[in-house]
């Protein structure tokens, strides 16, 4: 639990702290990425966490949600990739692509039709990464960091039908 909390807070902070109001950001960390919240997510049988290792060290993790655990669509034919976090020192080593490929395999095994995710509209690097893997924008929804209302793009990857 401690490792999950630590890596969640570190990766999120590294990626987004500078672009947010310090008070709003701290509030977000203390609620959305608290040990209590993460433990609750871990206990949900429709949410799945996987650590990713590089040279024997935890380098990141991803979380996907099924059905009612999804944050928005709640589509039983889809998987939501809610988090894909890589520690900054391990970025640009192909880990993100490896994580996406693992989620694709899980989704195919579960006979899902597509994977969807939300990505902050200002996170141009992540948007380009997802587009390079075949994800396409299909909508948007608000995302709050404290009181700050931001906008996430909703992106979808259609899976091959069996």
From TrEMBL:
Residues covered by the N-acetyltransferase domain: 10-160
Family annotation (InterPro entries): Acyl_CoA_acyltransferase (IPR016181), GNAT_dom (IPR000182), YpeA/RimI_acetyltransf (IPR050680)
Coiled coil, from the record: none
Pfam families found in the cross-reference section: Acetyltransf_1 (PF00583)
Keywords (A to Z) from UniProt: Acyltransferase, Transferase
Top-level taxon of the source organism: Bacteria
PROSITE patterns named in the record: GNAT (PS51186)
UniProt name for this protein: N-acetyltransferase
Phylogenetic lineage: Bacteria, Pseudomonadati, Bacteroidota, Flavobacteriia, Flavobacteriales
């Amino acid at each position: 639990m401690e490792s999950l909390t630590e890596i969640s807070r570190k990766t999120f902070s590294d990626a987004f702290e500078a672009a947010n109001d310090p008070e709003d950001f701290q509030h977000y960390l203390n609620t959305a990425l608290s040990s209590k919240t993460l433990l609750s997510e871990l206990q949900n049988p429709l949410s799945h966490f996987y650590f990713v290792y590089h040279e024997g060290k935890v380098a990141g993790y991803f979380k996907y949600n099924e059905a009612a655990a999804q944050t928005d669509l709640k589509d039983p034919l889809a998987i939501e990739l809610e988090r894909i976090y890589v520690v900054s020192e391990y970025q640009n080593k192909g880990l993100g692509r490896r994580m996406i490929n693992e989620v694709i395999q899980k989704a195919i095994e579960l006979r899902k039709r597509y994977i969807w995710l939300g990505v902050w509209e200002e996170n141009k690097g992540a948007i380009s990464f997802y587009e390079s893997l075949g994800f396409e924008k299909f909508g948007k929804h608000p995302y709050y960091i404290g009181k700050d209302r931001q906008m996430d793009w909703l992106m979808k990857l259609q899976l091959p039908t069996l």
